[in-house]
Structures are given as C-alpha cells and as structure tokens.
Amino acid sequence: MDEFWESQVEAFWKNGEGKDAEQLRKELEQLLAGMDPKDPRVLFEIASLHDFLGEEEQAVVPYQQALDSGLSGQKREEALIQLASTQRNLGQFHQAIGLLQQIPSTSELHADAQGFLALALLDAGHSTEAVRTAVTALAPHTRLYARALTAYAQDLSVPGVAQA
C-alpha cells in the first residue's frame, strides 16, 4: 500500500506543472482521502503544495508538524530543506541555516542542502561562509580540481583581512 501511495504522490508532483491551484488542491485532497490528517506524510505533502503554489507562510506550520510528528528518512531531509528554503524566502535566514545544518554529510541530499545553505548564509550577510559552503559542495563534482577548490574554499578569509 505504501509503495502504491508513494508512486501516486510521485505522479502527482510529476504532472503538477501547468495545473491551476484549485485543480492541484483537489487532486491532493483525493490523494490524501482516508489518511490520518496528522500523518507526517500527509502534513508534508500539504506543506509542499503550499510551497509549490508560492504560499510560503501557509507552508511553515505543516512542515513543522510533519517534522515534529516523526517524518523520517529522506522525506525528513526533504522537509528540512523545503522548510529552510521557505524560511529563507520569508527572511528567517538563521532558522533556515539551523535546519540545513541538520542534514548529515552522509545524506544523498547533502549537496542539495549545501546549495540552499549557501543561499541562506549569503542572505544572512555571511558571504565568505556562503562561498566556502558552495565551493566545498561543488568540489567533489569537478573533473580535475577538487583538491585545489576544497583547499581554496577552506582558506577563504574574512573580506578586508589580508592573508599572510
């Protein structure tokens, strides 16, 4: 049942582009029919739809409820990233940074989280740390210069401070 439901959720998101908000709300409501409204997966999908529709303020509470209700695995990490992105868009940069720092380096979504972390750091006024985060995340995906990029990223100094 869970695999079937997950495939339906995946199809919902894959086919969501170009549909109006009312159609998407109706389809998600049908998809979630009969499920416990407090199920963290339900809360996550509701929050995700608000986000998708540009309703960031309405997405925050269901994301937090999904996380507090025990959302687990990759969906938990997706929720952390999506909530952090939402909070960044709402000007809550430090909350976003805190959430993104919870994604472990062993996660398949770590590089994704690092991209959003770099943006949140930049918005919070931490430009050097933002560049360090972005370059460090990028380095393993380069063809020849991963070691050099990683070293340079770690050596970044605070702007205006000369290095010896």
UniProtKB/TrEMBL annotation:
Organism domain of life: Bacteria
Signal sequence range: none
Gene3D superfamilies registered for this protein in UniProt: Tetratricopeptide repeat domain
Domain Tetratrico peptide repeat group: 41-156
Listed name of the protein: Tetratricopeptide repeat protein
